[in-house]
Design brief:
With about 375 residues, this protein is of the alpha/beta class. Strands 9-8-7-14-15-17-16 form a seven-stranded mixed beta sheet, sandwiched between helices. Strands 3-4-2-1-5-6 form a six-stranded mixed beta sheet, sandwiched between helices. Strands 10-13-11-12 form a four-stranded mixed beta sheet. It contains 15 helices and 17 strands. Helix 1 crosses helix 8 and helix 3 crosses helix 6. About 40% of the residues lie in helices and about 20% in strands.
């Protein structure tokens, strides 16, 4: 019972959604000027959040490290360089720089190195804005409480303290909307899917890459194995990514590769798909159609040893479609669980239901960001 009471003790026990949002909005009313660092999707999302709450008037600038954007306008406001931000802070001590970028830790370090103080740097804005959209009907705390025993069960199954720290850090950052709960829990980004603490690749790997994009994971895998593996099975639903994948395979001379332009699902069917470079996903509102199949069909003649899944929320259906492979072959699994908060309990529970012999671990690969969290399921004999 120790680990169960530990989870209850360390998980935030209060819904902080409305309290944190109200406090944050009040802070934005007093900040003048506001600089949004990130002149693209995340910056737009945060700006829209301020518009919704009627506190956008103090946003005077966007900033970006992309030189091509300097001197242009975004949302009608000038896009400035880091040097101009430094001058701005010197002239206006109440300047608030909201980092709206997936490179949050790197930009924060850059600003600190430029002499800008912590009091002028905001790391929570984009995290709050993103989750405001997701949890406006049902807060993260309500989501977790609705399946509390399941989240608690997953926590008790985690096989090391690092996993438990990641798991609690992520959940608490969702409940509080404070991304600082995730500070310091990330593993090196280049170890994603192949964490050095957990994964030992051999020369006889048959690796199945669900969501192979343009071959970025293939490149990492080939380097880690020095090209010594039995087979690499690449599955990518997006036709443009698939075309780039095929080109990279030829250009880089990869051997023993099998490819499929398919979506992974729990049945053989045709699905609606929204193409979006790295974020393409199955959705009823998809503009194009894609063929889908099960991993049980795709891998029926393969002695698969490792399955990786990063398929933008389709992981549950793909796991269900791999039930026989997981039961019989017991491959190592590296499954992304960050696409929804429910996946933090739903996917580990499903994995253990399909094969209770797995040891479970959780690792995170994007410091102070709520993306790139992976659940590893590793057989006892690996």
């Amino acid at each position: 019972m120790k680990t169960i009471s530990e989870f209850r003790e360390k998980l935030l026990g209060k819904d902080l959604y409305h309290e944190f949002t109200a406090r944050y909005v009040e802070r934005m009313k007093k900040a003048d000027p506001i600089v949004i660092w990130g002149g693209s999707t995340a910056g737009q999302m945060f700006y829209d959040f301020l518009v919704e709450f009627g506190v956008y008037q103090n946003v005077k600038y966007f900033a970006d490290n992309d030189k091509n954007k300097w001197g242009t306008r975004f949302n009608g406001l000038p896009v400035v360089s880091a040097e101009e931000v430094v001058r701005l802070v010197k002239d206006h001590s109440d300047t608030c720089i909201v980092i709206a970028s997936m490179y949050l830790p790197e930009i924060r370090k850059q600003l600190l190195n430029l002499g800008i103080g912590e009091k002028n740097i905001d790391v929570n804005g984009v995290h709050l804005a993103r989750n405001h959209r997701v949890f406006r009907k049902k807060s993260a705390y309500e989501v977790i409480c609705s399946r509390f025993e399941d989240y608690e069960k997953v926590y008790t199954w985690l096989s090391d303290e690092h996993s438990k720290a990641v798991y609690l850090g992520y959940l608490n950052s969702m409940i509080s909307l404070d991304i600082r709960f995730m500070e310091g829990i990330a593993s090196p980004a280049d170890e994603q899917y192949f964490d050095r603490e957990l994964i030992r690749l051999g020369e006889h790997e048959v690796f199945c890459d669900c969501g192979s994009f343009n071959g970025d994971t293939l490149e990492t895998f080939a380097a880690l194995t020095s090209g010594k593996y039995r087979k690499y099975i690449a599955i990518e639903a997006d036709k443009d990514n698939y075309a780039e994948l095929m080109q990279n395979i030829v250009v880089k001379g990869y051997k023993n590769i099998r490819t499929h332009n398919l979506a992974c699902w729990n049945e053989t069917t045709v699905l609606k798909f929204h193409p979006a470079l790295t974020g393409g996903r199955v959705t009823d509102q998809g503009e194009v159609s894609v063929k889908a199949d099960t991993l049980d069909n795709i891998l029926k003649d393969e002695d698969v040893t490792f399955i990786k899944m990063d398929i933008e929320g389709s992981e549950e259906m793909a796991l269900k479609g791999a039930s026989e492979v997981i039961r019989r072959k017991k491959p190592t699994l590296a499954v992304c669980i960050y696409h929804s908060l429910e996946d933090f309990c739903r996917l580990p529970l499903l994995i253990k239901e399909l094969n209770p012999d797995y040891r479970l671990y959780v690792r995170h690969y994007k410091d102070m960001n709520d993306t790139e969290t992976v659940c590893y399921a590793i057989p006892e004999d690996r």
